[in-house]
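Chapter review: from sequence to fold.
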Amino acid sequence: MNSFNKNEIDVVLYAKENLKDMDCENTQLMTNGSYFERIWATAVLEISSNKLPYEMVVQDTHIYNLEETLENEDKKYIVKISSDELVRMTEYKACLEEAKENDQIEILFENENGFVAKINR
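The token string follows.
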């Protein structure tokens, strides 16, 4: 059984409460590929779409990276969560540093389990 800690909840709640125009088309949810993690985050974010059925959104287990997210002109926001401790200590830290160094990305919120960012185009 997976559970989410306060940091992960804080990341998702920040996005939900502050990104008023967030939807499935303009937001890249970046997870570790866990189906349970994606369902939980999508439900808490309450992101929806007229174009994409909920099932397609939550079943997308592709592990997105910053480069391909920035290549997608439709994406405006990034919500990155990382629940796995080993991943968090290595890959997540590298991803966060890469985002901070990229002048196209503005970090709006961050903690040790994730971040919310705006893509500046």
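Two observations follow directly from the output. The radius of gyration is 13 Å. Residues 85-101 form the longest helix (17 residues).
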